Amino acid sequence: MTHSPDPFELELTADLVVRAYQAGIFPMSESEEDPDVFWVCPEQRGIIPLDGFKTSRTLRKALNKHTYSIRTDTDFLATIDGCAHAGSERESTWISPTIVAVYAELFEKNICHTVEVWEGTELVGGLYGLSLGGVFFGESMFHRRPNTSKIALAHLVDRLNAGGYSLLDTQFISDHLQTLGGIEIPRAEYEKRLHSALHKNGNFNAIDS
């Protein structure tokens, strides 16, 4: 993982974030308490091929049997808060108030989107990320019930395929994402795919929600 030099040591704005993503770079904070951000451009980039999403038998059963409501773009702040804090395995978060404020602005601009899993009036899982051209840049996901983050991701993959996207960026690859079909590709290969996908016109709302 590498941190970028100037000119990205600037005040974080929505426009700057968009330009950074278009260049293959994304921001993070060291901790929730840190108002500053650093810029990341991994040597190996995580993606989930949109024709290669894997569902285990358990996940297929959950997708077929669940009674949750799947919604998009109804509660950004609750979704990003869940990504920052849900789950006892999280000792800290990189999602700082600075990050929240800028991505909330991107949400208002219809660039940032959420996939939300609801149980009645309770948000029990979800994810958020940015949509630019034919690329969805996944930022983070969370669950408060078994499999609800995976259910959100499966819905996202269906939505992106329906909407003509060609690249789902996960930034990094975890063991969890590998079980779902996530792979790593070298930065140069990622940049080629990114350049091509940015020239497409993905429709995040191709599936009604």
**CATH fold type:** Aminopeptidase
CATH architecture field: 3-Layer(aba) Sandwich
Q: Give the helix/strand class.
A: alpha+beta
Q: Can you say what the CATH homologous superfamily is?
A: Leucyl/phenylalanyl-tRNA-protein transferase, C-terminal domain
Secondary structure: number of strands: 9
Q: Which value, in Å, is the CA radius of gyration?
A: 16 Å
Unreliable residue stretches: 3-8
What does this structure look like?
By secondary structure, the chain is of the alpha+beta class. The chain has one domain (14-198): Aminopeptidase (3-Layer(aba) Sandwich). It has helices at residues 14-22, 57-65, 76-85, 97-108, 148-162, 175-179, 187-198, and strands at 26-28, 38-40, 44-47, 69-72, 112-119, 122-132, 135-143, 167-171, 183-186. Helix content is 34%, strand content 24%. The longest helix has 15 residues, at 148-162. The chain is built from 7 helices and 9 strands, in the order H-E-E-E-H-E-H-H-E-E-E-H-E-H-E-H.
Provide a brief overview of the structure.
This protein is of the alpha+beta class and 209 residues long.
How would you summarize the topology of this molecule?
Elements: H1 14-22, E1 26-28, E2 38-40, E3 44-47, H2 57-65, E4 69-72, H3 76-85, H4 97-108, E5 112-119, E6 122-132, E7 135-143, H5 148-162, E8 167-171, H6 175-179, E9 183-186, H7 187-198
Parallel strand pairs: 7-8
Antiparallel strand pairs: 1-2, 3-8, 3-9, 4-5, 5-6, 6-7
